[in-house]
Amino acid sequence: MRFFHPFLILPLCIPLQSAIEITEFSANPAENIADSDGDFPDWIELCNTGAATESTAGYTLSDDADDPGKWPLLPIDLAAGEFLIVFASQKNRRVAGEELHTNFSLSTNGEHLGLYDSTGTATSKYKFPPQFFGISYGSEGYFATPTPDAENGGIDFTDYVRDTKFSIDRGFYDAPFSLEITTSTPGAEIYYTTDGTEPSPATGTLFSTSISITTTTVVRAIATKADLISSNVDSQSYFFLADVINQTNSPDGFPATWGIDNSTNNGATNLPRPADYEMDPRVITKFGEGEAIAALRRHPTISVVMTPNDLWNESINSSDGGIYPNPYGGTGSQFRTNMGEPREWERPCSVEFIGFEKVPSKKVNAGIRIAGNFARHPNRYKHHFRLTSRRDYGDSKFKGELFSRTDVDTFDDFILRGGNSESWTFPGATGNGPRTRSTVQYIRDQYYKDAQIDMGNLSASQEYFHLYLNGVYWGLYTLIERVDAHFLSQHLGGEEEDFDVIKQANVLSDGSRDDWEAMYAISRAGVSDNAGYAAIQKYLDLDNFIDYMVFNFWAGTVDWRNNWRAGRRSRNADGLGFGYQFYNWDGERGLGDQGGNRTYTYNNTTTARSWFYHPNEIHHDQIGRASCRER
Question: DSSP character for 134?
């Protein structure tokens, strides 16, 4: 295999003809070949299948049959049987002695891929079918074990099993029905589960004629056939709201405890934490069944379905522990030591979006983990979640216009926010507990972000929704865009690598911190003249900053020190960008929250409100300086 060393000779492939050919490629690779950026892009393996050395001069690669010259290769001599790896990454790099990256990537849904010689003749041409994670493709079919640096083995799969189809779509029902599941692949068998377990021939029930659905049920199904790649796992959730409003505290198959209540504040009991599933009968008594059912339909629904062990297993080992009994899994101020990194506690799941205005019904496969800081404490019964899209799970991005205030339709991550201190489940019999619960409104955090948008600035969009876990109602949540490089690129244009993102505690989320440090160096030196004023505006979006500061002072943001986001586009095609913008984040403890100190000092530089590496530090650095009195 050759990446970029012109003299490197590696294992040979089987000669087929006197030409350079595409002998293997991966449009949905696992993390087996990293590029120099640490990414794992699509890759294409070329091989000189002839008996003599041949140059790639004049050869081109293309994913468009109408544009065969789309990406010219550099002239590189390949000995007989020698390999050359080209990354199909869209990075478009053609520098002698370095990695090669095309100006296109490959579609996992299948498309054209061709290699053309100097005469425009295709030496390899594929109209390839859908591709699957960790599986590569060649001239005769799929390889279960990719060999980008070696001779191809035998074909493992000649085709793939077509997706399962359900006769009834996910949603709300009030009468029993019979469900049929089919696949268009002749001879394939379908296996299904109804407890959230990922189905397989070993874990599922063989589907025969139909399934009787009489109450809230989550159905997962897979279709399999020997020598073919199995279908992905499809999920369909069916909700009978008359049963949901009478949900008991002991639903079938759910555990009676959620690990140990070892909260680091608000009164740890160090005893098993009792589970809480019951629909509070006081709600039904006060408002009536009809109003409760109407309320469950008033907002969209998200149904998360996953293997029960991944949710509930009380092992504290990240290899097999469930995420709900182990909210401290990971590292950081609210994590516990020796429990692994947050990614190690991410588990696969299916996510169904039901009733969103622009996306009435959609299912994606994703990763899920517990999210938040203080919200991780075991005595917060209603945890936040983070949903993550990865190729590992089958969907590399979330697709769909899920938010009413933006037409952005491509996402990497979401936060499923359960409220924390702005919810009825906030703990504590004394202190902030009852005082906080007495002012619960579920609108403060939403207002923070909506207000920033209404002031003409970018902020994360939110939508209220009802969450179900494996068919059990979990409460009213908010779906929130996660502020990161992908978020900024989707809203502001450009590529993800163009952006730097910093969050509270001076943590770098994406990109580089060079411009961040330069901005604070200028601010700390004091902006006392026009030159300094011009200098800091290269790094700081002053209009956004003024709006952001004024709003947070006005709103009395109690937990401001621990909740903020900042992002800057420091690079684009012209070498230009824009200054850091600050984004409201986690505003639940503002606007009259009962707990915390809301006294602000506007005209001093004490540490009371000039936190280190915080937007308020910049504010205090510039107080009284004439250059910052102008807008």
Answer: T
Question: Residue 59 is encoded by which pair of tokens?
Answer: 């050869």
Helix (H, G, I), strand (E, B) or coil at 365: strand
Q: Quote the crossing angle between the two packed helices 542-555 and 615-622, to the nearest 10°.
A: 100
DSSP 400-418: S---TT----EESEEEEE-
431 Cβ partners below 8 Å, 6+ apart?
A: 595
Question: CA dist 240 to 173, 192, 303, Å?
Answer: 5, 20, 13
Distance CA 41, CA 104 (A): 11
How far apart CA 310 and CA 370 sit, in angstroms, is 12
φ/ψ (deg, to 5) at 90: 70, 5
Give burial (CB, 10 Å; 0-12/13-18/19+) of 306.
buried
* Distance of alpha carbon 579 from alpha carbon 256, whole angstroms: 51
Beta-bridged to residue 276, according to DSSP, are: none
Rounded CA-CA distance 499/511 in Å is: 6
Sort strands 165-166 and 181-182 into parallel, antiparallel or unpaired. antiparallel
Strands, E assignment, 133-210: 136-137, 142-143, 159-160, 165-166, 171-172, 177-179, 181-182, 189-193, 205-206
Segment 244-257, tens digit of pLDDT: 999 999 999 999 99
**What does DSSP assign to residue 182?**
E
User: Is the Cβ–Cβ distance between 244 and 219 less than 8 Å?
Assistant: no
Q: In this prediction, what percent of the chain has a pLDDT beyond 90?
A: 68
223 strand-pairing partners: 190
DSSP 208-262: -S-EEE-SSEEEEEEEE-TTEEPPPPEEEEEE-HHHHTT--SS-TT--SEEEE--
Residues in the chain, how many? 631
Task: Measure Cα distances from 443 to 78, 321, 447, 565 in Å.
Answer: 64, 34, 6, 20
- Distance from C-alpha of 499 to C-alpha of 497, rounded to nearest angstrom: 6
- Torsion over CA: 261, 262, 263, 265 (sign): positive
Token look-up 């909506």 returns: 450
Q: Which residue type sits at 360?
A: P
**Contact at 8 Å (CB) between 118 and 20?**
no
Is the separation of the CB atoms in 105 and 42 below 8 Å? yes
Radius of gyration of the chain (CA): 28
Q: What angle do CA 544, 550, 551 make, to 5 degrees?
A: 90
* pLDDT above 70: percentage of residues in the chain: 89
Q: Using the predicted structure, report yes or no on whether residue 607 has a pLDDT greater than 70.
A: no
What does the mean pLDDT of the chain come to? Answer: 88
Question: SS3 breakdown of the chain: % helix, strand, coil, rounded to 5?
Answer: 20, 25, 55
The answer to whether 422 touches 441, Cβ cutoff 8 Å, is yes
